[in-house]
Amino acid sequence: MEDLNYNIKSGLFGVAIGDALGVPVEFRSRETILQKPVTDMIGYGTYNLPPGTFSDDSSMTFCLAEALTHDFDLNRIGGNFVKWYHENFWTARGEVFDIGIATREAINQISNGEQPEFAGNTDASSNGNGSLMRILPLLFYIKDLPISERYEITKKVSSITHGHIRSVISCFYYLEFSREILLGKDKFEIYQKLQTEIPGFLNSLSINPHEISLFDRLLKDDISELAEHKILSSGYVLHSLEASIWCLLTTENYKDAILKAVNLGEDTDTTAAITGGPAGLLYGFDSIPESCMEQLARKEDIEDLAERLAEKLGKK
After folding, report:
1. What's the angle, vertex CA 89, arms to CA 84 and CA 91, rounded to 5?
2. Distance CA 151, CA 142 (A)
3. Which positions make up the signal peptide (predicted)?
4. Cβ count within 10 A of residue 259
5. Listed residue (303, 299, 243) closest to 272, CA to CA
6. Which of 43, 66, 97, 105 has the most crowded Cβ, counting Cβ within 10 A?
């Protein structure tokens, strides 16, 4: 139970610190950030908000975690997203200041009575990183289930906002990587293991081979050997997944991983949030810089959420 609580705390704070570090420089180009790289928690910038303010990435992560403190229920998860968008539930400072187009459309669909599982757009053009950025808490619910169940549940939770297979595979790969971290595996060992396991599993589902081939840089190549200019950091789900794994594999501690993610530019908060979750799991809560923790909005609430989630899942 203590280990579970520690791991959940490591993951939730891992996401939130990465997110908050990236918020002030969101949308800035890599070239612009390079002139003055982010080295610690700063404030204001893009949204003119105080240091430690997390965005939709963390808010929706906490909405999912909050739902999982009860029995698993897609309606509750979708309902929490609606509460976030319309009632500022789990916002950092009482306001929603950032939301993706596909996520907003899906939340509006749920508000209008659509079942959450079918609210996310399934079009290939709707493959932003909006489900990947918030999926991490699901790991703690599915980690002991068979792979087929892990996949099916991940697919449903992604599809609340992003229903296309590309977003689903991205979330699935990310959670499988994070699960192996929980099992105590070396990050490079995990990377190689997934190159065997994931293609075999996806092929067994008769998924369009073209969609699987889009993941070749992760599933066939060694992404850690790529130069930075070949790693993209837009809001496209595949860019975000690749960037997060690249940042994990090319650094040796939590702080370096998330700062590397932020300094890639563009979708800085989300790239760093997606990197920060597994980095938190890999290096542990104690590796998160105290200077960042001190400034993070709602840290006591996040700690309480981690404890409640551990308590619920510890009884499962």
Report:
1. 90
2. 9
3. none
4. 23
5. 243
6. 66
Element (H, E) at 262: helix 254-262
Q: Terminal CA-to-CA distance of the chain, rounded, Å?
A: 11
Domain that holds residue 182: 2-314
pLDDT in tens, 6-43: 999 999 999 999 999 999 999 999 999 999 999 999 99
Among left, alpha and beta (phi > 0; psi -120 to 50; other), residue 145 is: beta
CA dihedral 33, 281, 292, 128 (to 10 degrees): 40
Q: Residue 114: left (phi > 0), alpha (psi -120 to 50), or beta? A: beta
- Find tokens 């977003």 and name the residue: 167
pLDDT in tens, 258-285: 999 999 999 999 999 999 999 999 999 9
By CB neighbour count within 10 A (0-12 exposed, 13-18 middle, 19+ buried), where does 211 fall?
Answer: middle
Model confidence, pTM: 0.98
Domain at 71, CATH number: 1.10.4080.10
Instruction: List residues bridging with 44 in a β-sheet.
Output: 49
Q: And the tokens for 203? A: 């092929």
Q: Could you identify the residue written with the tokens 């997110």?
A: 19
Q: Please choose, from the candidates 169, 161, 146, 48, the residue with its C-alpha nearest in 3D space to the C-alpha of residue 109.
A: 161
Looking at 136-267, list the stretches that DSSP marks H as alpha helix, in order from N- to C-terminal side: 138-142, 147-158, 165-182, 187-204, 209-213, 216-219, 237-249, 254-262
d(CA 310, CA 304): 10
Average pLDDT over residues 302-307: 98
Closest C-alpha to 7, from 313, 316, 310, 312 = 310
Token pair, residue 107, equals: 């939340």
